[in-house]
Amino acid sequence: MPNRLAHETSPYLLQHADNPVDWWPWCPEAFEEARRRGVPVLLSVGYSSCHWCHVMAHESFEDEAIAALLNEHFVSVKVDREERPDVDAVYMEAVQAATGQGGWPMTVFLTPDAEPFYFGTYFPPAPRHGMPSFPQVLEGVRGAWADRRDEVGEVAGRIVADLSGRSLSESLAKGDQVPPGPEDLAAALLALTRDFDAVHGGFGGAPKFPPSMVLEFLLRHHARTESEAALQMVQATAEAMARGGIYDQLGGGFARYAVDATWTVPHFEKMLYDNALLCRTYAHLWRATGSDLARRVAVETAEFIVRELRTGQGGFASALDADSDDGTGKHVEGAYYVWTPGQLREVLGERDAGLAAHYFGVTDEGTFEEGASVLQLPDTDDLVDADRIESVKERLRAARDTRPRPGRDDKVVAAWNGLAVAALAETGAYFDRPDFVQAATDAADLLVRVHMDWQARLHRTSRDGVAGANSGVLEDYADVAEGFLALASVTGEGVWAEFAGLFLDTVLVHFSAEDGTLYDTADDAEQLIRRPQDPTDNATPSGWTAAAGALLSYAALTGSGLHRDAAERALGVVKALGGRAPRFIGWGLAVAEAALDGPREIAVVGPGDDPATRALHRAALLGTAPGAVVALGEPGTEEVPLLKDRPLVDGRPAAYVCRHFTCERPVTDPEELGERLRS
């Protein structure tokens, strides 16, 4: 008989609806039930495409004996971390503080007052490698709760007091709340060079994650300073990732991360946010260098997003699982993506199989499990016939399409769709792909129709066109505003900038502290044991620095001193952390580069159907000035303040390049405009 999760909309929660565990969703009633029964709460946090979440579910949560133990002695609460990032953040902070590490599934034991007292991540069903079994953990917690209740309460109280004492606002308020200057950004660059992997690209060792936000900072730093070191780190990392196993050489799109330092073997789940960020990064790399590889990867990644993640309502699904059926009924990580030499011969025949093995690095030994290989792209482009390789890829794609496909988490997350809107709009504009721009527009329309209420408040998720009950967090407002501002620049439709302004006003009213720092949850959101506040990037830009970037861009379009001041105050944290931990505040550093450059404000005026207007608009979009904003409109347009009082020049379309609404003389030549935006 299904449990309470059968009434939820999250695909992750629905995966547990038939467990024998008597699961509750996160809700006040669950904690009231724990209080009534006098038992602790088991909080289990994961997400749909999490491999080890699936493993623990199959091993423990589907086990009748373990379920009976849970049901008798605990109230069990299951949370989708992607739906409730606030709950995840608060308890992950506690897990990391107590154990020095974190991850998913996250397993936390709470008092009925939601105070944590014991932590872990994955627990096996039997003792393994020095790790206690999950039943042993449950028995230990049950015994402590029954026999040492006062001691458990004291531990929980100390943990909550410690978390509450970690006030980022107070510590930053004592410091210098001004944006980073040139010397701060130079120090961040120097720190990144120390962590750079000069052999394999990227930063640090294994596991290695795509450093999207850091690469954006480096591209903007190069544009402002002409630093060759910054550009070389971007180029080396982008090429290594594009040629490695982390990139899907047949279908486009990136896996979550590489388990090694060489980008060879990925963790195979594909996330919307990674691909949106990387699509934009490669598009910006092409804009800066003209790289054919960057162009190919940007376009293929955009095609992957639209082809594989687009929902029937026009939004974009969250993720594709790492696991899929290997053809025997067993779910195996990477089964959809890996190849053996024998499988190549079955599809291609002996002659072309040898070519494919050489081209994609498929060997008898393999690079993955059981002799299978993850397709890579060794530097053999000049050794093969391009048409023949394209034929090989088409046949391999067709064969792969007959394999059981990875599952798809089809919930639509507002923040990640905002990132996708920005990436698809710009990639479509750069490479003359109106289908990408239309896909971005459709997703933006869904965010307005389904995720936004009449007070311009956002729901974080939707599924099948129905909004979830969860409120938007800071990153939702910031990333949706970022996406809408990019869409306005590409399409010239000022309504998207107006929506962005509404969301940013909500940020100023409901997410801001008096000292200019930002919280991840609104002041009227559900109160947890701590109000989360994290300025550092994780897999996506932090809500804090994403908001700073969107506020800065909106101020550049409108001339709003209020929004500019808020952006600069928010950037104080980048000055504090940028030199010490640049890898974890890359988006903040990128926004700081834009603030140092102005950012440049480009107003393009002229009839929309005039080729001269379109040429100026394209030149403006392709300008590499850090964080430049573009407004496009007919003469006399006042919908966007940057366009106000910008006339034609001798009856011809014109572009005005400004900083802080002070403009240089207008230009009518696209080449001259491009040169101004490079200087």
Polypeptide structure, described:
The model has no long low-confidence stretch (mean pLDDT 93). The protein is globular and about 85 Å long. 49% of the residues lie in helices and 10% in strands. It has 679 residues and is an alpha+beta fold. A hairpin with a 2-residue loop joins β18 (654-659) and β19 (662-663). The strands form six sheets. The protein has a five-stranded mixed β-sheet, with helices on both faces. The protein is built from 25 helices and 19 strands. It starts with 10 loop residues before the first helix and ends with a helix.
Topology:
Layout: H1 11-14, E1 23-25, H2 28-37, E2 41-46, H3 51-61, H4 64-73, E3 75-80, H5 85-99, E4 106-110, E5 116-120, H6 134-147, H7 149-164, H8 168-173, H9 182-195, H10 212-225, H11 228-243, E6 257-258, E7 266-267, E8 270-271, H12 272-289, H13 292-309, E9 319-320, E10 323-325, E11 331-333, H14 341-360, H15 386-400, E12 408-409, E13 412-413, H16 414-430, H17 434-451, E14 461-463, E15 466-467, H18 474-491, H19 495-511, H20 543-558, H21 561-570, H22 572-577, H23 586-597, E16 601-605, H24 611-621, E17 629-633, E18 654-659, E19 662-663, H25 670-678
Parallel strand pairs: 1-3, 2-3, 16-17
Antiparallel strand pairs: 2-4, 4-5, 6-7, 8-9, 9-12, 10-11, 13-14, 14-15, 16-18, 18-19
Helix pairs in contact: 4-6, 10-11, 10-12, 10-23, 12-13, 12-16, 13-16, 14-15, 16-17, 16-18, 17-18, 18-19, 18-20, 19-20, 20-21, 20-23, 24-25
